[in-house]
Amino acid sequence: MTLDQLQSTLPDYFAPWVQALGLRAEGFDADSVTLRLPQSDQLARAGNMLCGQAMMAAADTAMVLALVNHFGEFRPCTTVQMNTSFLRPLSGQDGLVQARIVRAGKALAFGEIDIRGAQDGKSVCRASTTYALL
């Protein structure tokens, strides 16, 4: 898998509104994928803070790409559970969304996501997910 291959997955498998987030593949290893969520006025709420809905969508998208990386191809899947905790606001900088696979079996996959400021490296959001592999 390459960054270009991961990036090209976005228009192939994700809805136009997810593509409008402007996510960019930044890095990956055997168990994780990192996406950049650019700062945008369209994703900000009062005080120029990134809205939670955008963070949750980015986290979900990053985990699907982590599964693509893990399996070497897209496998149909659906989110069964996502538990999200918002730790602090993110404003004035891009977010880095790192999705890590905890376990991927035949029917279910489990993952953890950390979103942190691209400049200060501070965690702003943590999520755990479960996916059904179809």
UniProtKB/TrEMBL annotation:
Ranges that cross the membrane: none
Thioesterase domain segment(s): 54-122
Keyword Signal: no
Signal peptide: none
One Pfam short name: 4HBT
Keywords associated with the record: Hydrolase
GO molecular function: fatty acyl-CoA hydrolase activity
Family under the similarity heading: Belongs to the thioesterase PaaI family.
Name by which UniProt lists this protein: PaaI family thioesterase
Source organism: Ramlibacter henchirensis
